[in-house]
Amino acid sequence: MRRVITLVLLVGMVLLACSSCSSVAFSKEKVRRLPAGEYADKMKAGWIGQMAGVGWGGPTEFRWKGKIIPEDRMPKWKPKMINQFNQDDIYVEMTFMRTLELYGLDVSIRQAGIDFANSGYRLWHANRAGRDNLRNGIAPPDSGHPKFNNHADDIDYQIEADYAGLIAPGMPNLVIELGEKFGRLMNYGDGLYGGQFVGGMYAEAFFETDMVKVVKAGLACVPAKSQFAECIRDVMKWYKANPNDWQKTWQLIEDKYQDNPAYRRFSCKKDDFNIDAKINAAYIVMGLLYGEGDIDKTIIISTRCGQDSDCNPANSGGILCTTIGFSKLPDKFKSALNPEGKFSHTPYTVPRLIEVSEEIVRQAVKRAGGRIEKDSSGEEVFVIPVQKARPSRLEQCWEPGPIANSKFTDAEMAKITAGANDISAAIKKVAPGWKVSKCGPDMNPGLRDEYKGRKNVLVTHPLNRNTGCVLSKTVKIPTGGKSRLSLWAGHHPGGDWDLIVKANGEQLLKTTIGEKTTTNGWTLVEVDLSRFAGKEVKLQLVNQPTGWQREAGYWHKIKIITK
């Protein structure tokens, strides 16, 4: 009997000891706690900060290259500037958010590539080259590899990586993983690291307001031996040496990362124009460090540094605003926000974007080994394990590793439809009998129900910088009267194009369609065809690019008139 009692006591003591050990282990668990309401407030502020930065800096983009923007040339903020629904700095990441919404955080890189290939908005540089590669069957990660993408070190993933940190508070390894999935659609090396750096800063901004610590958290997400990391370390060093003189630090950045060819070995251009990720990331950091926690000052400094001076303040403004929270943002950044505005070629309004972000972050917390608890008042709290960032492997665009030989299958290519640009149904309503060829995918070609007062408008776009979109029709010109080609031609706001009219290969007309040649966006064009009376003529109308800036051609009522 005594042995039984003794055994019971021993077992009890062991269980008590184990329970005590478990309690101690739980209490020492390294986690960060973030109330769900606070997350939503900060996340929303991050999206709004992006829109504020890109809207404020927009008028200056690449107008000052290798120069500081004079203080008196900085635009004045107007509340309506917040409605930035047509900016590539923001709408691209909406495609990534949509992919995550539909397929979850474990979506394959190939599905991400298919979704990006099917996007309809206008793109430039690495984004454009990457999407063209995808549409031509080059699957990721090769779509962003330097062998196929001459812009792989450009800023593109950096400007659109805000989403990664906004759905990964305190989770730098998810930020890095998302870069490996979405960033490789168009970037490689430093171009990829720029996005992982930005996302890492956002992830930390939910818990930290000290910008030095925020920048260090982003820096931990990139390979330490990369030129990108070297650049950020330099900026932090120069800031410490010149804490009250941002322009002196700017000059040091200029001397090394603009003027030294060793740090521009894969820049897409070699003159003052510099869209390399490194130097533009330096300007993001400039705003954060010298902005002293002030939204206006942060955005203004990142803008005045020049180069891509709307993307950079979008990043710095978004990161800083995340630390502040939407409820504490000045009213001038919120009062004119249009809740019904949709980001270009996406299903997202700001309210819907907030909802989707809240849905995805819950997946992220659980996927990272965290949990969602309720506090004493019944409010949700995200419990997030502390992570040490594990950067991607070191690679540089000028010494790239081998390609993956990744190609889309026929079945996957069948899912990529955006580049096909079959607008034959649209042209039947505007100009029956005419055919279209060499129509590029930009600016969503096709039929518009109405444009600037005219109904049933055809929109075309040149195939590339050198090749115009062609409308053609073979007709027999009647005898017994004077015949003319008549059409209304229009242009996109802020853009222009050359209208070329040919008959049997002979150029009959070349005229620019733009603000200076139209009234309310339209002009009536008429070309005399009388000398072709009784003959069969192949007519060609060319939407020819000029400066590759919003080159869409708008067409209305194309017809042959004989009187």
Please give a handful of descriptors for the protein shown.
elongated, ADP-ribosylglycohydrolase fold, Jelly Rolls, single chain, 2 domains, alpha+beta, 563 residues, 18 helices, 13 strands, 5-stranded antiparallel beta sheet
Mean pLDDT: 92
Rg, please?
28 Å
Q: What's the CATH topology name of the largest domain?
A: ADP-ribosylglycohydrolase fold
General shape: elongated
User: CATH class of the largest domain, anyone?
Assistant: Mainly Alpha
CATH superfamily of the largest domain: ADP-ribosylation/Crystallin J1
Total count of strands: 13
Question: What do these coordinates show?
Answer:
The structure is a single chain. The protein has 18 helices and 13 strands. It is α+β, with helices and mostly antiparallel strands. It has two domains: 31-385, ADP-ribosylglycohydrolase fold; 424-562, Jelly Rolls (Sandwich). It has a five-stranded antiparallel sheet with strand order 4-7-12-9-10, with no helix packed on it. A five-stranded antiparallel sheet has the order 5-6-13-8-11. Strands 1-3-2 form a three-stranded antiparallel sheet. A hairpin with a 2-residue loop joins strand 9 and strand 10. It is elongated, with a radius of gyration of 28 Å. Mean pLDDT is 92; it is low at 4-12 and 14-27.
Question: How would you concisely characterize the structure shown here?
Answer:
With 563 residues, the protein is of the alpha+beta class. The chain is built from 18 helices and 13 strands. The strands form 3 sheets. Strands 4-7-12-9-10 form a 5-stranded antiparallel sheet, with no helix packed on it. Strands 5-6-13-8-11 form a 5-stranded antiparallel sheet. A 3-stranded antiparallel sheet has the order 1-3-2.
